[in-house]
From TrEMBL:
PANTHER family, per the entry: GNK2-HOMOLOGOUS DOMAIN-CONTAINING PROTEIN, RECEPTOR-LIKE SERINE/THREONINE-PROTEIN KINASE SD1-8
Keyword Transmembrane helix on entry: yes
The protein, known as: non-specific serine/threonine protein kinase
GO cellular component, one term: plasma membrane
Domain Protein kinase: 334-620
Record InterPro entries: GNK2 (IPR002902), GNK2_sf (IPR038408), Kinase-like_dom_sf (IPR011009), Prot_kinase_dom (IPR000719), Protein_kinase_ATP_BS (IPR017441), Ser-Thr/Tyr_kinase_cat_dom (IPR001245), Ser/Thr_kinase_AS (IPR008271)
Membrane topology, record value: Single-pass membrane protein
Subcellular localization(s) per the UniProt record: Membrane
Domain named Gnk2-homologous: residues: 27-132, 138-247
Species this protein is from: Castanea mollissima (Chinese chestnut)
UniProt keywords, alphabetically: ATP-binding, Disulfide bond, Glycoprotein, Kinase, Membrane, Nucleotide-binding, Receptor, Repeat, Serine/threonine-protein kinase, Signal, Transferase, Transmembrane, Transmembrane helix
GO BP: any one term: defense response to bacterium
EC number in record: 2.7.11.1
């Protein structure tokens, strides 16, 4: 988030911030749901799972914040599960968190998964068809860093290291079975900065396993998040975290005065705080109006928000390989009847695996630009991604010249099919469209911020947004995606590939792409969803007008609602539609730096109390035309910088549609 938008955020969100804190809903972190392990709906396994989840939920107010249980007698339907609440939370918070997790995991994150893990700040819930009790597991990893650097670097790494060491020692001191393996520690780094750290293991593993698990995490922190104001790493058996603000409920006695002194074990704050409400909740409830508290809350939230940069788990590397005979059988030898359509780089067929699983099989055309590199790229990226708004990759097949990707089957085809078809458009009422917009935004946010890798899709367009049976959007086609390292924000390419009409000018003209390129494409998508028209097929009496200039004209004339699709004019939310038009125009601004981040777009979509800044003139560079063509623009290094189209001469003579 850029500085000015942070300021806007601070000013306009102070009220909702207080609300967020006092509400104290569990704070979601991440989840793990290996897509190769699915159960059949309505099976015994599913009913055992439901039974397990309710048993975990109903046991969550017990002392100890940890519970493991099994349901079912023998495999294959036996299921093992546990939850662990953060060592400092009250029984009530624990109960809430476990209930939320149990619900979310089956409703949202892993509806048919045989095994899953879901993490919140306050608790973790895990289940599997294989026994995992007492077995240390750190193969599934999630880590997150605070965006900000620590300002006092002197002695920081050393102090943090010794605090972590001390915490690990105390957390692993007791070895009787079931002993709480939790410790926190705080210490002053400078007169104004206090470090808070926390370590915890699931109590089912031994002290020595816990020690190994925690030391591994502590050792990783500097690799992932060197010099940051806060960081966390979560694995199934343990977790560590530090921040420069108190993120856990500190009920312990004040820390001992001289820093190197070894504190007595204080690993049981739970016992003396059962009925105590989180101090932040008290602050929010008791003095919501006090200015200083507002400031505190804002600081807290900004830190918390930056600390919530999420990354997915690195999972065990299990094989995703399918063989060609299996896919041939599944698709009736790639018959015409099974053909679903043509994707960006090849034909797509519907298939059914022997276990009844429906799949979409994408055969990459042999002369496609997606060579072996792009192919591996897509597999590599998608295999690591899990999000309900991204299409799931089940696996791939490499056989001679054949390159094949196997995806989940998404029945309602692409959003593209709904644009420019009044019949189909009618089925997309405003609330559905609004849901689709939110889903696409969350999918992109996941790519940009929440996955361990920073991924730029680079080819977001209506035909790459698939709709499932409930019309949830799923982003597909990652052949062009690029992975950025965490702190990289821009890259230049001399091979421009993208879709005419969705490319921002800085990319089409200069080959610069960044997270903001996807934001631009998202803006175009928004306008298309609102208007029911494709950017490229837009027609009015004035041939020089395109969807963007049309939107801008109406915006300035105060007639934005004119943009709206005729088929939904009789029923829509004026506030939501206006907000979406406003966001769309912010996204397509010419200057990438002025376009909002996906993070703030989600905030804007979710809140009605946001004051949005005024959009600047959009980039009119791309005009209507062959929007479906994927472009290849080869620029040599010397030419690269000098090719600059002016807004008016957008003839794109240097661009060659394939
Ligand atoms: C599962 O059971 C529910 C309720 O009994 C039913 O509505 C649903 O159609 C069933 N699903 C399958 C796939 O059998
Ligand atoms: C706790 O779990 C057990 C089985 O694991 C179950 O029988 C019991 O109903 C659950 N609830 C409570 C409140 O103990
Ligand atoms: C819980 O885990 C322990 C091992 O840590 C195991 O001995 C015990 O049987 C488990 N409890 C249930 C109900 O499965
Ligand atoms: C758990 O499920 C997976 C996938 O169905 C299967 O391969 C594995 O054998 C199962 N494990 C047990 C102990 O049933
Ligand atoms: C944090 O420090 C690194 C180098 O240590 C620097 O590259 C980066 O820009 C800094 N980030 C912020 C937000 O100051
Ligand atoms: C933490 O403990 C490990 C092993 O006990 C030791 O190698 C390391 O130097 C310690 N780090 C600090 C900062 O005390
Ligand atoms: C940290 O500083 C605060 C006030 O500046 C002081 O009250 C506290 O005792 C200090 N803590 C430690 C561990 O030195």
């Amino acid at each position: 988030m850029s500085f000015p938008s942070k300021v806007t955020f601070v000013v306009h969100f102070s009220i909702s911030i207080l609300f967020i804190i006092s509400e104290a809903a569990p704070n979601f972190r991440s989840y793990y749901c290996p897509n190769r392990y699915n159960f059949t709906p309505n099976s015994t396994y599913q009913s055992n799972l439901n039974h397990l989840l309710s048993s975990l939920s109903s046991n969550a107010s017990r002392e100890g914040g940890f519970y493991n249980t099994t349901v079912g007698q023998n495999s294959p339907n036996q299921i093992y599960g546990l939850f662990l609440c953060r060592g400092d939370v009250t029984a009530d918070v624990c109960k809430d968190c476990v209930a939320t997790a149990a619900k979310a995991v089956v409703q949202q994150y892993c509806p048919t998964g045989i095994k899953a893990i879901i993490w919140y700040d306050e608790c973790m819930l895990r289940y599997s068809n294989e026994s995992f009790f007492s077995i240390m597991n750190d193969r599934v990893r999630y880590y997150a860093c605070n965006d900000q650097n620590i300002t006092v670097l002197d002695g920081f790494a050393q102090l943090l290291g010794s605090m972590m060491n001390d915490s690990v020692t105390r957390a692993t001191a007791a070895d009787q079975p079931g002993a709480t393996k939790f410790a926190t520690k705080e210490n002053n780094l400078s007169s104004s900065i206090t470090l808070y750290c926390l370590v915890q293991c699931t109590p089912d593993i031994s002290s020595s396993s816990c020690n190994k698990c925690l030391r591994g995490r502590v050792a990783n922190l500097p690799d992932h998040c060197s010099g940051r104001k806060g960081a966390t790493e979560l694995v199934p058996s343990c977790n560590v975290r530090y921040e420069v603000y108190p993120f856990y409920r500190n009920t312990a006695t004040p820390p001992p005065p001289p820093p190197p002194a070894i504190a007595p074990p204080d690993s049981a704050p739970r016992s003396n705080g059962k009925s105590q409400v989180s101090s932040l909740t008290v602050i929010a409830i008791v003095t919501p109006i006090a200015v200083c508290m507002v400031l505190l809350a804002m600081v807290y939230c900004l830190q918390r928000r930056s600390a919530r940069k999420k990354y997915p788990m690195e999972e065990e590397n299990e094989s995703l390989l399918f063989d060609l005979p299996t896919l041939k059988a599944a698709t009736n030898k790639f018959s015409e009847d099974n053909k679903l359509g043509k994707g960006g780089f090849g034909e797509v067929y519907k298939g059914i695996l022997p276990n009844g699983q429906e799949i979409a099989v994408k055969m990459l055309s042999k002369n496609s630009t997606q060579g072996a590199e792009e192919f591996k790229n897509e597999v590599k990226i998608l295999a690591k991604l899990q999000h309900r708004n991204l299409v799931r990759l089940f696996g791939y097949c490499l056989d001679g010249n054949e390159k094949i990707l196997v995806y989940e089957y998404v029945p309602n085809k692409s959003l593209d099919n709904f644009l420019n078809d009044p019949e189909k458009q009618r089925t997309l009422d405003w609330s559905r469209r609004y849901k689709i917009i939110g889903g696409i935004a969350r999918g992109i946010l996941y790519l940009h911020e929440d996955s361990r890798l920073r991924i730029i899709h680079r080819d977001l367009k209506a035909s790459n947004i698939l709709l499932d049976e409930d019309m949830n959007p799923k982003i597909s086609d990652f052949g062009m995606a690029r992975i950025f390292s965490n702190d990289q924000t821009q890259e230049n390419t001399f091979k421009i590939a993208g879709t005419y009409g969705y490319m921002p000018p800085e990319y089409a003209m200069q080959g610069h792409f960044s997270l903001k390129s996807d934001v631009y494409s998202f803006g175009i998508l928004l306008l298309e969803i609102l208007s029911g028209k494709k950017n490229g097929s837009f027609c009015t009496s004035d041939p020089s007008e395109n969807l963007l200039s049309h939107a801008w004209k109406h915006w300035n004339g105060g007639t934005s609602l004119e943009l709206l699709d005729l088929t939904i004019r009789d029923s829509y939310s004026r506030t939501e539609v206006n907000k979406c038009i406003h966001i769309a125009l912010l996204c397509v601004q010419e200057n990438p730096a002025q376009r909002p981040t996906m993070d703030s777009i989600i905030l804007m979509l979710n809140s009605n109390s946001v004051t949005l800044s005024s959009p600047q003139r959009p980039a009119f560079f791309l005009q209507s035309g062959t929007e479906q063509n994927v472009l290849e623009l080869e620029l040599d290094q010397s030419k690269g910088k000098s090719i600059l189209f002016s807004v008016d001469e957008a003839s794109i003579t240097e661009v060659y549609p394939r």
